Amino acid sequence: MSSAASDVFPPPKDFAAHAAIGSRAAYDELRQVALADPEAFWAARARAGLHWFKPFGKVLDWKPPFAQWFLGGETNASFNCLDRHLTGWRRNKAAIVWEGENFEQRTLTYLELHRRVGQLANALLALGYRAGDRAIIYLPMIPEAAVAMLACARIGVTHSVVFAGFSSEALRTRIEDLGAQLVLTADYGRRRGREVPLKKNVDEALEHCPGVRHAVVYRHTNGPIAMRAGRDLEWAELVASAQPGCPAAHLPSEHPLFVLYTSGTTGKPKGVVHSTAGYLTQVLATMEWVFDLRDEDVYWCTADIGWVTGHSYIIYGPLAAGATTLMYEGAPDWPRPDRFWELIAKYRVNVFYTSPTAIRSFIRQGEAYPAGHDLSSLRLLGSVGEPINPSAWRWYHRVIGHERCPIVDTWWQTETGAILLSPVPGAVAAKPGSATLPLPGIVAEIVDAKGEPVPDGQQGYLVLRKPWPSMLRGLYGDPERYQENYWSRYPGSYFTGDAAHRDADGYYWVLGRVDDVINISGHRLSTMEVESALVRHPQVAEAAAVGRPDELKGQSLVVFCTLKGDAAATPELSEELRAWVAREIAAFARPEEVRMVEALPKTRSGKIMRRLLRELVTTREVKGDTTTLEDYAVLLKLSVEGKDEEEILGKN
Ligand code: WTA
Prior knowledge:
Layout: H1 13-18, H2 24-36, H3 38-49, E1 60-63, E2 66-69, E3 74-75, H4 77-81, E4 94-99, E5 105-109, H5 110-126, E6 134-138, H6 143-155, E7 158-161, H7 168-178, E8 182-186, E9 189-191, E10 194-196, H8 198-206, E11 214-218, E12 232-234, H9 235-240, E13 251-252, E14 258-262, E15 270-274, H10 277-289, E16 298-301, H11 308-320, E17 324-328, H12 339-347, E18 351-354, H13 356-365, H14 368-371, E19 380-384, H15 390-400, E20 407-410, E21 444-447, E22 460-464, E23 474-475, H16 479-487, E24 494-502, E25 508-513, E26 517-520, E27 523-526, H17 527-535, E28 540-550, E29 554-563, H18 571-584, E30 593-596, H19 610-619, H20 632-637, H21 645-649
Parallel strand pairs: 4-17, 6-7, 6-8, 8-11, 11-12, 16-17, 16-18, 18-19, 19-20, 29-30
Antiparallel strand pairs: 1-2, 3-13, 4-5, 9-10, 14-15, 15-23, 21-22, 22-24, 24-25, 26-27, 28-29
């Protein structure tokens, strides 16, 4: 990737002239201030950025790996996203502009959003929910998802949004891990003209979750659903009888705002816990630094609220900043491949934030689609979720940004809460494929296996040396796993799980995961999660899942299975297994290819050698050290398109 590094795109003059941070010198000064005294720097951002019911005292309590920020302070995320915008002209500003897949439109002003959030919060209080309780939100991309999150935040109920594409099984494991008492859902979601049976999935999951007292159901499509008396409640009825005004609870800074499950290196998803004040402070700061947001902007992040990008950059960041955030229910290519461009033209979008996979799919569809729409409102473009290949970057710059808009390639993670590496668009020159520099207050480094910094240009592991306000506070109910996953490899430093290198200008080039997490279309998936799903199938004995580079999706999933007893390796079974994984986890996890083999390559201690399989699907050859292989012959039994032993095993 760095071979294309000679391309440099300085901030466009027009853009820089109007930007909040308009020169490299101004930006370097800001970074210097942050570096000199990070605690004072973040304390100032927190004081200026948030409304405090009670001011905080101590800025940071750091007992590695456990951080607490803004101690003694009391605030509320819902209040910061709503109430404080109601005292001035913003009260009638559009907070959420929504468009449904079937072209339906709704606009909620800050006043209207506040009213709806208050009603739902009061209804939840009336049902007995209080600060410390946990709610699962399993809703499509409709304004009610925002209402649900903000209503929970208002009364201190910790929410966990489960992506509406997840199966009932994935939903169940999250409900169980969180010990949730409440589920907020809808009858159906819409996806490419189909109706996704959300309530039915909830019903299936709740068969096994006796701890859930209520399921509140929003009628989105009005399709048929079953309602269980005593447990299931109609959203519309609940809020109709509730008062609109609900005072925001005064919550300690460290109150857990949400838990978001993400894939780790085991079969069990990790519940990443985020706080209230630290999270909001940093997310808000990045709205200014990275998106250079202005009050008159229409801002559009195309992520789903089920992922961290949706949390931080559709809901909490934009609303805390008093922005107008566009929310779109459907797929980018439904009903036509120009849906996104039509939306940009229709709502005069100024800031557009999407994923490299989406960009690559637009490239495939051709330039005629964007060319057919007026994209002149765009001022800034963003990318997130996976490395963006330089050619996709250039296409985005030329065809969507008309060589006028800077691009912010933002690197961050569910765990980091907010963007940590990104160009500041009015100040930092971009290089296609690089997330450029750490933002103010972020101390990043690239180290070798021993934790020693590597020379510039050399590949290593990306670590973060200092705590930051929006960092995860832990993994829900599992402090050991938190310690082990992120802090044990390099004690005192946070291990990101990403490989990267830094060039002579100090720019970071993030290359991708080094663990058993693969990234499909920007969605994180653990190979172990897929393997556990496969071995639940009655005919599968063992399974190994690996990622293969994919031009469109970044990576695609290939699985190897051995079968039980006399099960036959038929094309039908292969299809069935693909569908099985999609049903057990989510559609994005559907394997691209299933290879049924007689045995899997293992080490003497019985560990599956995924590295070999990865090489096999990537290069169709196997190199490297294979001396730990128990049985070389096993590899030959894998379908390697007629290559002989020497070719497969390389020259060892
Ligand atoms: C990858 C998404 C390169 C990375 C916000 C990270 C990126 C994982 C970038 C986190 C980027 C995200 N360049 N790689 N700009 N952004 N990644 O938790 O591997 O869904 O560790 O958070 O995505 O994925 P997650």
